[in-house]
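Support request from a user on the community tier.

User writes: "When I paste my structure tokens into the form, the page sometimes reloads and wipes my input. The last time it worked, I copied everything first. Here is what I submitted, just in case something in the input itself triggers the reload:"
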């Protein structure tokens, strides 16, 4: 299992780019999130042909904004087989269709939609309302010979770590959204992650690293060359 981030920034970030990652996992290349900077980044890094599966944490534009362009590109320019979009619930698929339909007319022509539960090794953690009020978000846990947790945008870390605590012991790396502003309740203030650093290897993302306080012991993905695409 190998994860490479395509960006580690927040919603409006054009320097550190939208948070997204490419995960090599159980024989597939899974794109996790596809915000508005992801399509150009995949093209610039010559990685777009690799993407064969796609999984979204939620439907904010910095997590799905270039998905229609990516799907059209793979069909019209690359002429590659339809990528598989794994979806965590029927409601989520319905909401994703509402975003795609005005842009690609028939989403099934450009992607194969497969329920996440049919794909072994990925657990969706429902984090509804924990990033934005009354809004659906998911964290995901990927398991093979090791375990990777990916928080998505998440203001409260408890639910994800409670789920991880209940799983059988295995080397686990947690990629967690992080903010250095205590008033930003849509993302996880770094001090809320401190109770977990003894048991988990944690890396922060979805932040402005220039605001990183000197007392933050959590490493940031952007400063880990081995984690960047
Ligand atoms: Zn975001
Ligand atoms: Zn968001």
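"...and here is what came back when it finally went through:"
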């Amino acid at each position: 299992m190998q994860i490479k981030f395509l960006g580690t920034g927040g919603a409006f970030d054009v320097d550190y780019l939208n948070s997204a990652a490419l995960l090599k996992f159980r024989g597939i290349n899974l794109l996790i999130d596809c915000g508005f900077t992801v399509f150009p980044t995949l093209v610039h890094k010559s990685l777009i042909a690799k993407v064969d599966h796609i999984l979204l944490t939620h439907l904010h534009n910095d997590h799905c904004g270039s998905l229609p362009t990516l799907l059209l590109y793979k069909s019209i320019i690359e002429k590659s087989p339809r990528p598989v979009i794994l979806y965590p619930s029927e409601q989520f698929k319905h909401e994703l269709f509402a975003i795609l339909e005005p842009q690609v007319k028939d989403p099934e022509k450009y992607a194969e939609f497969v329920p996440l539960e049919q794909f072994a090794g990925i657990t969706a953690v429902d984090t509804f309302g924990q990033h934005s009020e009354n809004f659906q978000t998911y964290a995901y846990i990927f398991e093979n010979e090791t375990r990777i947790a990916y928080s998505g945008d998440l203001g409260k870390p408890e639910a994800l770590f409670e789920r991880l605590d209940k799983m059988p012991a295995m080397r686990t790396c947690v990629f967690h959204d992080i903010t250095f502003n205590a008033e930003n309740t849509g993302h996880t203030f770094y001090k809320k992650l401190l109770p977990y650093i003894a048991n988990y290897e944690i890396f922060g993302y979805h932040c402005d690293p220039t605001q990183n306080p000197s007392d933050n012991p959590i490493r940031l993905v952007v400063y880990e060359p081995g984690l960047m695409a």
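Agent notes: The reload is a front-end session timeout and is unrelated to the input. The chain has a mean pLDDT of 97. The domain at 2-223 is CATH 3.60.15.10 (Metallo-beta-lactamase; Chain A). Escalated to web team.
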